Amino acid sequence: MKLERIEVQQLQMPLRFRFETSFGSTTIKDFLLISVHGEGAVGYGESVAMPTPFYNEETTETVWYMMEKFLIPKLFSQPIETPEDVDRLFAPIRRNNMAKSALEGAIWDLYSKQKGISLAKALGGTRSLIDVGISIGIEPTVGEVLQRVERALADGYKKIKVKIKPGFDVQVIQGIRERFGDSVPLMADANSAYTMEHLDIMKELDQYGLIMIEQPLAHDDIIDHAKLQAQLKTPICLDESIHNAEDARKAIELGSCGIINIKIGRVGGLTESKRIHDLCESHGIPVWCGGMVESGVGRAHNVAITSLPNFTIPGDTAASSRYWDLDIIEPGVELVAPGQLAVPEQPGIGYTLNQQAVGKYAVRSASYRPAK
Ligand SMILES: O=C(O)CCC(=O)C1=CC=C[C@@H](O)[C@@H]1C(=O)O
Ligand SMILES: [Mg+2]
């Protein structure tokens, strides 16, 4: 694969709603879009790092810095035949997974375009339709969460995830169960807002038939999660604690979780996502694709990875139109049936970049070329 030019653009896209979690809230999606040009094709990737280091340690700025100083020079330093070469090339650099993933994802897209196959196919995907769920943030009142749940159920979303935090937890779940019944596929995501001191709350949540409780304890923990899991019938799902397949192996061995949320950016790219997927499959641990409020580019990558066979639980990849008045891809990622997305068959991510929309949201850009 000949890489001729890499473009990094910082985009700021207004969200259609305020998204609040236990660690903060946002109305503007501030992120980096990567375009890798080679042999007449362009591959696209998205950095899912946020402007602030509260979900993980990376930010829009650290991602840019790591790309410019280390990752892009490495990409230009030696020939690349496949996206797996990129994974090997980046391996000596510690962490900075979202920065690595944005570039690696763009190369996967470029690679599959050059081969004339869909990204899903290049990754080994087997599904042409995927079931998806929706992630509902913390709202000022339980009543407002219930309104959002009602709309999501009307759209047919196959899993309802609600964000919880101490003081806004059992009453939300109880409210949803009372209003919509026990058969709604429901889960809660705590984004590390609890400790073992909150065991009584976890035990209360355990009574509501949740599909899972996501990342209740510390972002860097798998020990207490194992202790907690032993006391709950509801499976624990790990998100923040898993950065690679080795973390997943240790968590599975310890019994820290029954389910793993794979976020491509958090684990450093599609190659590592596949590794975690395969490892979990061999241990009978189901996985699902988490969301990071992606623009259409990241969303398209999520759709492609979700087509792999062990993504048996609907992920957080809701439709573009839920988030954006105008997405940066055409067409947007939209439901083709209640709660279902189609996996594109066209080469690469299978969506075209809307350059006008990119121009509208871009606030900064830079171009990098290999030294002659
Ligand atoms: O709609 C989406 O893209 C999912 C959003 C979502 O749940 C999350 C986005 C970003 C950080 C976290 O709050 C979170 C999650 O932890 O899964
Ligand atoms: Mg989460």
UniProtKB/TrEMBL annotation:
A GO BP annotation: menaquinone biosynthetic process
Top-level enzyme category: lyase
SMART domains tied to this protein: MR_MLE
CDD domains in UniProt: NAAAR
InterPro entries recorded: Enolase-like_C_sf, Enolase-like_N, Enolase_C-like, Mandelate_racemase_C, Mandelate_racemase_N_dom, MenC, OSBS/NAAAR
Amino-acid positions noted as binding Mg(2+) in the UniProt annotation, renumbered to this chain: 189, 214, 239
Catalytic activity: (1R,6R)-6-hydroxy-2-succinyl-cyclohexa-2,4-diene-1-carboxylate = 2-succinylbenzoate + H2O
Keywords: Lyase, Magnesium, Menaquinone biosynthesis, Metal-binding
Pfam families registered for this protein in UniProt: MR_MLE_C (PF13378), MR_MLE_N (PF02746)
Active site: 163, 263
UniProt-listed Enzyme Commission number(s): 4.2.1.113
Top-rank taxon: Bacteria
Sequence ranges assigned to domain Mandelate racemase/muconate lactonizing enzyme C-terminal in this UniProt record: 142-235
Role according to the record: Converts 2-succinyl-6-hydroxy-2,4-cyclohexadiene-1-carboxylate (SHCHC) to 2-succinylbenzoate (OSB).
PANTHER family: O-SUCCINYLBENZOATE SYNTHASE (PTHR48073:SF5), O-SUCCINYLBENZOATE SYNTHASE-RELATED (PTHR48073)
Protein name: o-succinylbenzoate synthase
Gene source species: Brevibacillus centrosporus
Source species taxonomy: Bacteria, Bacillati, Bacillota, Bacilli, Bacillales
Gene: menC
